[in-house]
Amino acid sequence: MSAFGCEEDKVSFTGEKVTDIDGNVYYAVPIGNQVWMGEDLKVTKYNDGTPIPNITDMSAWQYSTSGACCWYNNQKEWGTLYNWNAINSGILSPAGWHVATDADWATLIDYLGGENIAGGKMKEAGSIHWPSPNTGATNESRFAALPGGFRRGDGTFSSFGGGVYWWSSTEFDAANSWTRYIYWDKSVIYSGHYDKLDGHSVRCVKDN
Question: What's the pTM value of the predicted model, to 2 decimals?
């Protein structure tokens, strides 16, 4: 089922859309002065056509030194999970878009009223995909966040159905990068720095 519930919901707030190199179509979501993709990125190739290795093996994921992608428990659900080397390639997003920076996330969160309530405004409402009580979820931003979980640097998976973690393209240090994440039982969107070996979801922002 679509994050938007139905095709009509997707197009009710914007006619703009973007297609990635795999042919996946994303609807644009204006939020304040920004335009975000309305779903997590799904692409399996860089925008120059080069395939992103889909690594299913735990050990291979842990010791990968280049860009990689996967799906939670190696089963396609919503968005694709990427390690940070894929983010740092600079060619992950469709032309005219970019992986959200930490500053992009800060702008979004400020517009939605601050980190204590912004997460609720970004989560898909109801309990079709998020477990009850799905605290604070209104999706009034039309961001339609889904609980896609993440992959740890050791290759194991965590938090599917309960949370979502998004990379930013902004480094914290040589081993970590800034991440934003939300949970089923909080309206907060959190900020933290995570190991670049992790596999997180990605949201893209339209270039100015």
Answer: 0.91
